[in-house]
Write a structure and sequence with these properties.
- It contains one helix and 29 strands.
- By secondary structure, it is an all-beta fold.
- Strand 27 and strand 28 form a beta hairpin.
Length: about 475
Amino acid sequence: MSATRRQILARGAAVASVAFSGALGALFPGTPLGPGGAVAGAGTGGTGVPGHRVPARAGYGLLRPDPDGLLDLPEGFGYRVLSRAGEPLRSGEGTVPANCDGMGVLDAGGGRLRLVRNHENRHTAPLAVPAVPGLTYDPAARGGCTVLSLDARGGVTGERVGIAGTAVNCAGGHTPWGTWLTCEETEDRAGTNGYAEDHGFVFEVDPGDPRRTGAVPLTALGRFAHEAVAVDPYLGVVYETEDAFVKPFGLFYRFLPHRPLGGTGSLRAGGRLEAMRVPGVPDLAAVTEPGAAFGVEWVPVPDPSAAGTPVREQDFGRGGITHAQKLEGCYWSGTGVYFVSSFARAREGAAADHFGQVWFLDPRRDRLTLSVVFGPATDSRLPGESPDNICLAPGGGLMVCEDGGGEQYVFGVARTGEVYPVARNAQDTGTAAAPEWGEFAGVCFSPDGRTMFVNAYAPGTTFAVTGPWH
């Protein structure tokens, strides 16, 4: 957080302006909608940073400084550190890797849980995912996943490698059959950065028995800078976001499997990859009004392997294809899929500026609606900039991992339109002259809604947060 932004927050400035559309049944159950079925709001109360008051209707109150200097939370909330980078893995396979990113929580039965945690390691990362025989795709790559096992009381009973030898594992998504799809956010080919294999794929990880899935790239899902995926639990269609912040920007995809809902390993059977076209909208950033809705078309990807040309640069024929800057989180809820554009900047070639969009796709009607807009993008003083990983909160609404400059927060978005702080990474890894805080990532909740799990990207830390969630 810049000094300017910190000073403005200290004066009790308004929270970030957020506008909503009426397509929010899954986000805000029971929310009364305004005229025409839409509600828009901008909070005017305190921000919830230390020393300021938050309206009772939004959030959980002031963030209290953590005496241990790890995680600031509201009164009545507490945390446990489940794992930290640099510590020994409980399996004895090596050291907990760095750069904790996307994460999923999966039910293991009897109240037990498994957390599958990505490590967004590039070729220079100092703490690699340990290479384990049978679980390593490319010995020269340093990314992958680790799996934490929790007992019914939330205690960590195991920690092991889920997959190794992959690169820049950013986000992903869970499958209806209880596995995790981890995504490589890179397009590096063999021979680049010392890699022995091509990268830019999705891999399946079975958290209960990683050797069932091994380290096999799901090549039919495309080779591009993957961010996140969501699987339609009714039809088995896989939706994918592409994180490309330099033009040409990324695409939104769907993958139609040959064996839909076929269980572990079924995605290896292949399928058809298509990209979304919104007729008349070449760049989603051009849409600024919440509630704006469009019909969509799906265009076959000419070369999913990107053998000669990156997918987003390929020729999609007459009408072209629809791009968006910085496509990030993606998840299924209710009857459709939500996905995030983290930001758009006109100075970088986007059609307009925004601080973040959340889109909703209704697959039954091929209808795309702009549900949430953060902004304005030109005012970096407001909190809640650049939403990255997001999830649904237990009582409705959004939890947003901020990926902007300066101090980093997990924010909630209330049905009143206010953005309120839930947690702040208190781990300053910089200097007095140049403080630096790692972003949050991988926010998710236990099935009973009582525990929020989240990663501090740097220094790599996995937290379990409990308190009076409502």
